[in-house]
Amino acid sequence: MSLENLVQKDSGYSFGFLDSFAKRELRRRMLKAIAIPGCQIPYASRELPIARGWGTGGLQATLSIVGPEDVVKVIDQGADDSVNAANLRRFITRMSGAETTTDTNDASIIQSRHRIPEEILVEEQVLVLQVPNPEPLRRVESDMAKARMLHADADYGQMWLVLYEQLVRFGHYIQGASYPVMVHSRYVMAPSPIPRWDTPMLHQSQHLTILAAGREKRLYAVPPYTNVYPLEFTDVPFEVEDQADWVCRATEAVNKFMNEIPQDDGTSAFELSDSGYMEKLLSLMQGDDDVSVGDTYYDDEGNFYHDGYLKTKR
Amino acid sequence: MAYVATKGGEKAIQASEALYHHLKGEVTPELVQQISDTMPYLVDRVMGEGSLYAPQLAALAIAQSGGDVYEAVLLMRAYRSTQPRITYAQPLTADNMLTVRRISAAFKDIPGGQVLGPSLDYSHRILNLDVLDGTSNHEMPELEPADEPAEKSYPLVADWQRQQGLIAEIETDNDALDPADIPDVTRDPVMMPAPRAHRLQSLARADTGGLLALGYASMRGYGFIHPTVNELRLSHADVQITHPITGEPFSVGRVRVSQAEVVTKGKSSYKIGFNATMGWNEVKLIAGAALDMEMNQTEPHPALNEDFVLYHTEPIESSGFCIHFKLPHYVTFSSSMDNMRKVIKAMYGAKAAGEREDEAEEAEPTAETVIKDTM
To answer: Largest CB tally within 10 Å, which of A10, A25, A128, B345?
Structure first.
C-alpha cells in the first residue's frame, strides 16, 4: 500500500463544477423554496465560468440536481440551437456527463430562458427557468428590504394599482412577458420573462419548476399541482398574446407560440418558437415514424388544456 | 433542421472564440511573467475585484482575456469558486504591516511622519515618446538609499485622534474573534441592511470604476459629507495562519494590501469611513471610504444608500448583466409588440395597426377623433 494509492486522484473540478458545500446549500434552498411556493429564498450564488446574467442562476440549480443518469435539454427563447443554449448545454454535460437532448419528452431536466416548451411536462420532469429579476415589486419598490416587508405582509396593493393605471391609460394590461402571478394564494411572483402564452402552463402543472436568479441571488419554486393565477381584475381578464392567425411557415402548425420574422416586402413570416417541437413535427412530415409528439398545452384550436383557466377565447 | 442548427451553433461558438484568440496573439509563460512584473497596478486591480490574491493567476487572466479587465476578473472569480476553503488567516492590523506609503491630508505632519512611497501623484503626465523612437535611455531612475532604514510600522493617525477624544473609541478583541464567525459575502446571501463585514467585503471586491462613479457623485455634492483623507496606506502584510498540529502561528506569504480612512464632522465627534482591499488601488480606496461614510447617514441620497451602492458596484454582476443584452430577446420583445399593436389599434384604428383594410370592420377614426373620444 503506497501513499499514491491512498490519496484521491486530483480530478480538477468537482462533479457538476460546484463544490459540495455549494451544492448542498442550493439543494437546501430549493427544498425551502418548494415548501413555500413562490417565496424568494436568498442563496449565496457562486461565480461560474459563464458571464453573470447569462443564466448562472439556472445553471447553479441544474448543476446541483443533475446526475449522470439525467437527460438535459437547454433552450433559449424556445430554441435548442441558440448559441447561449448550446454553450450552457456543453458546460453541463462537460461537468456532469449527463446526456443531452432536444426532445422535451426525453428530458429529465429542462433549463430554459424565456420559454416553457409547448408539449405538456409531466411528473418527474424539472423545469429550471433562468431569472434576470426575481422581484415582481421592483418597479413599485426598488428598496429590496422594503419589498421583502411587502411580501411578508402580502401587501400587493401597488401591483394592482399598476394594472389599474395600465387599463386607464391604454385600455389594456400592457405588461408583456414576466406577467406577475399569484402563487398558492400567497406570494406574487415574477415567472421570469416567459411570454404570457406560457404563464398558464405553471398552473396545476405536473412538473416542478425551479426559478433561479444568479446575479440577484434568489431562488424560488412552483411545486407540482400548485395554483398559479395571473393578477387580473374579475371584469378585465388576462390575455395571452394574440397570434390566432399566425401559421408556422415550416410546419403549418397553428396556435403555438411563434417567432415573427420580418420579410423584405414588409410582411411577416411566422415560425414555431419551440425548436425541439418543430424538429419533431418536421420529422413526422418526412415520414419518420419513430418520432412521438406529446400532448400540448394548447390544442390546434387554441384551447388551453385546463378548461376555463383562460377567461377570454383566444 | 434544428439538429443541424444546434451543431451550427456550437461550431459558431468555437469559431468566434478562435477569432478572438487570433486577434490578441499567443499567451506564453513569458508574457504572463512580463505582465506580472510590469503591471502591478493592473494585476492588483484584477486581484482585488477578483477577490483572489494570486499575482500569477491574475497576470494569466489579463493575458488570456486580452486585457479586458471585466473578463479577467470573471476568470479569477470563477476559478475562486472551485477552490476549497482550507483555513482562516489571523486578523491583520494596520500597525502590524510593512507600510511603504502612508499619507494624511488632515495634518501637515503626523506621528511617524508622512511617507510618500511609490506614487505617480506629482509626476508630469507626459508621454515619453522617446521610447517609441528608440532614443530614450532605458536606464531606470536611480534609487537613493536613505540614511536610516524606514520604520517597520507606523502608528495610526486615528489612534492619536482617539486619544484626543476627537473620534469615538472602538472596542475590539481580536484574540476572542473566531474568523470563521465573520459573515462572508461569498458564502451568505447579502440581505439589507448588510452586516458591516458584508459591506466592507463588498467594497473590497467592488468595481473600481463603479465605486469611483458613485463616490464622485457623493463628493460632488449629491452626498452630505466632505471626506478628508485621514490616512491612506499601502502595505505588505504577512498572512499568518495557525499550524494545524503545533498551533503556532506562521506566515504563509506576503500580500500587497491597502486601506484608506476618511473623516467627516459628526455631531460631537468625527466620523470615520473605511475601505481596504487586496492590492494597491488608491482611487478605489478613497471612493469606497467616502461611500462607507455616506452609507452611514440616516437618510443618504437614494443613489448612495447601501442597497444601491453594494448592488451596483459588483463588477461581475453589473458587467455580466450589461453584456447579457447581447443575447436574443425576441420572445419578450414579441410579447411587448403584441401589447403595442393592441394599443395602437385602440388609439388609431386597425389600419394604423398594420392590418389589411378588408379586415378592418369599420372606417377607422382619425387620431384626432380618438383623442377627443378618450378625453
So the answer is: A128
